[in-house]
Fold this sequence. Notes:
By secondary structure, the protein is an alpha+beta fold.
Amino acid sequence: MLKLFQNQGKTLRWIMGALLFLIAGSMVITLVPSVFSTQQSGADAQVLVEVGDRAVTIADLDAGIRQYVRRGDMPPESLAFFANNTVDNLIGKRVLMNEADELGLIPSEEELAQWMRDQLPDLLFPDGKFVGAAAYRGFVQQQFQKTIPEFEADLLEQIVIETRLKRMVTDSVGVSDEEVKQIFHQRNDTVQLEWAAVDRGDLRSAVSVTDEKLAEYFEANKLRYRKQEERACKLIEIGADYATDDIDLSETEIEIYYAENQYRFENPERYQARHILFSTMEKSEEESEAAWKKAEEVLQQLRDGADFAALAAEHSQDPANADSGGDLGWITQGMMVPEFEQAMFALEVGELSAEPVKTEFGYHLIRVEAKEAGTVKPLDEVRGRIREDLIIERSQSTRLDLMDNALAAAQEHGVELEKAAAAVNLPVRVLAPFSRAELPDDLPKASLLVSAIFEETAEEIFTVTQDGTLYIGVVTAVTPARDGALEEFRSVVRENYIDDEASKLARSKAEDLAKKARENGGNLAAAARALGLKTSKSDFVKRSDSIEGAVRVETLGPEAFQKVDGAVVGPVGSGGSFVVYRPLELSPADESALEDEGESIRQSELDLKRDRMFAYFRAQKLKEYADSGRIVRYEARIQEYLRFLRSRG
């Protein structure tokens, strides 16, 4: 599937959550067999969900799941839990692709090529020449952790859904000048406030605490003080970084490995060639016949001694290399479509193809400029690499043997995990009883290990792989969850009771403050003095600012920027305080700054509106497809796949 000109340069804005990654390139329309319409067959194509004219197959789901394995986001044991969400996401994409297809938005190969050509060629076309199939494959694998088909399928979906369909659906969305101005003022207007706060912390000492009140409070909030289940366990750990220090490799082992793995050290045979393309893509029979005749004419000129590079610059319809005289650079097997390769490999250096070579892209005139035979790198050049590979291989083999032996020993000794650990010369961790809410500091939080400890049957060996570490464990004791007693939680109950009562007192005092200030014609300062409080006057602050570093202005509500007539507002809760305030003066932002900020504001608001509209469109289409029976889920197959994932974990 991977062919030289099929993938020459790809620029793509990947919109995946917060990820935004740009790759640059320029696609050439020659020598590429339709990579953007990959087909699957056999077991891989078993349909899990039919979505209109498209389907979600086992291969699709497996590809989506593998991305999480590769990125390390989702351990294998948890894949089954994630698979249903992946199916839903794939269904959404199929619905949108169906809609795009019905609207004529799926690009042709030529349109895709033009889209690619319009992008920057820097990354995959340094100095105007394609970096080669191996470099392209390596780039995709390194940057995206995808196979070429997965990468290119995602590329097509991004172009169709995120560019064409989204643009069509949201094309009518706009942001008016008045909206821009309003947002500008929301961000930049400032206000000066007079304010007073009642802090519950200042009133804690005023709370009266009795045994009767604590008992009543405890009964009313009993669920807050339930004693969680606790478990004790023992663990053996074999980390991902496990390595043995006593690996000693002989020169003979290195030589044997070199002899048995020569293919890994090959420099393949390669050709340097030029070509002239006469395109027939999406042309009529008459136009294709004309292209053939033109190719014959130019071929005769070459036979008569004309300069190949000059004729390529004049006639070739391959924009990637016409200007460089049709130079294709160095080519190895598998980089070209078969028809082109077959013709090129039959030529000697300096020889011209006897007739125009037909491919699905048109007619090519080919000349081989140079040829290098395949070679094998000498042992001295790769000895270090072989040594590293063998050490890694031996270390991993030793680690796997250790894991097998440790598990066998654990199965033999059961709850006496210390004996199993001693048998394989590993330490054992003994963890005293703990609950989910109070995990040991060195235990990974929200992990598969924690789930296993609290879900596995006591005194039965379990295994978990987390971040490359194998845990072999056994739960040694279980203390069931139960309702707590007041005496167990008395100190916590007392603190909670005082906080809650102090908050009630603070709110009541703040309400009294606001009432007195309003009755006194808005004189907040006088009302505050009467209650033993003080008022403060803020600087001019924006909505995003805080006053005295504690109270965020945006939590005071819209009245802070609307009631500038001195009206008293509040009380407003903010953390452990209740604030009463008066807006004193509003300072509108200088609109001359709109010239610099306006377009940025407009674009960010436009993006937000478009995202919301497209999300609504997607939801409506999903509902429409579901209601009309155009989404058919084969639940038995899905559940079978989930069982397979669970067994693999």
